[in-house]
Amino acid sequence: MINSGDDKVTVSESGISEKAHVELLFKNGIDAILVGTSIVLSDNPSQKIKELKIS
Q1: How far apart are CA 17 and CA 24, in angstroms?
Q2: Residue 55 near residue 26, CB atoms below 8 Å
Q3: Model-level pTM?
Q4: What is the phi/psi pair of residue 49, to 5°?
Q5: CA atoms of 37 and 43, how far apart (whole Å)
């Protein structure tokens, strides 16, 4: 688990292309993600964003 302190945001910036990646990152303490390539290369970017979203 990552503990960067209450005043810092830990961001994962690379290689996120599946919902399982997102879930694993947040489970392990990541505060935010930066997703680019998998959305840009998707045939349906809007749907890809919905796929990656977690509740």
Answers
A1: 12
A2: no
A3: 0.79
A4: -60, -45
A5: 12
Query: Quick check: 34 and 6 in contact, CB under 8 A?
Result: no
In this structure, the dihedral spanned by the alpha carbons of residues 40, 29, 54 and 36, taken in order and rounded to 10 degrees, is 0
Q: For 9-21, give one letter per residue: b (16+ CB within 10 A) or e.
A: eeebeeebbeeeb
Q: Which residues contact 55 (CB under 8 A, 6 or more apart)?
A: none
Q: pLDDT tens track of the chain, all 55 residues?
A: 566 667 899 999 999 999 999 999 999 999 999 999 999 999 999 999 999 999 7
CA dist 7 and 47 (Å) reads: 33
**Cα gap 23→52, rounded to integer Å:** 9
